[in-house]
Amino acid sequence: MTLRYLIDESMPPLWRQLLLQQEPSLTVYRIGDPGQPATGTLDPEILIWCEQWDLILVTNNRTTMPGQLADHITVGRHVPGIFTLPPNYRLRDIIDNLILVAGAALPDEFKDQIRILPIQ
């Protein structure tokens, strides 16, 4: 299974470019890109978007996202997963991990979970 990613608007646009340079077969979108949620879209709407389009959200929002996900699940909704970044990370390690995880993940492996990258 290959995971599909939605990169949060707070992440540099370079992330999408680096992921696709390293692994062109990945599906990677970014909030604010054409056809994706607009910049400034609220978290609950982003979670619905991820659910509808089967996208794992990659974000550095470690503060409010757990509560947003809990609310999302409480009303019977689901997400393929949310990956957050640790406070201190090396970009190269995170990019490599996203590529590895995309190719190795089992169906629904991260469903309704928030996981901190890198995933071991």
Verbal overview:
There is one protein chain. The protein has helices at residues 14-22, 43-53, 65-74, 91-104; strands spanning 4-7, 27-30, 56-59, 82-84, 114-116. The protein has a five-stranded parallel sheet with strand order 2-1-3-4-5, with helices on both faces. By secondary structure, it is an alpha/beta fold.
Alpha-beta classification: alpha/beta
Flag low-confidence runs. Answer: none
Number of helices: 4
Tell me the distance between the termini: 17 Å
Total E-strand runs? 5
Mean pLDDT: 94
The major beta sheet can be summarized as: 5 strands, parallel
- Can you tell me the overall shape? globular
Order of helical and strand elements: EHEHEHEHE
Strand order of the largest sheet: 2-1-3-4-5
Topology:
Elements: E1 4-7, H1 14-22, E2 27-30, H2 43-53, E3 56-59, H3 65-74, E4 82-84, H4 91-104, E5 114-116
Parallel strand pairs: 1-2, 1-3, 3-4, 4-5
Please give a handful of descriptors for the protein shown.
120 residues, alpha/beta, five-stranded parallel β-sheet, 5 strands
Write a brief structural summary.
Helices cover 37% and strands 15% of the residues. The protein has 120 residues and is an alpha/beta fold.
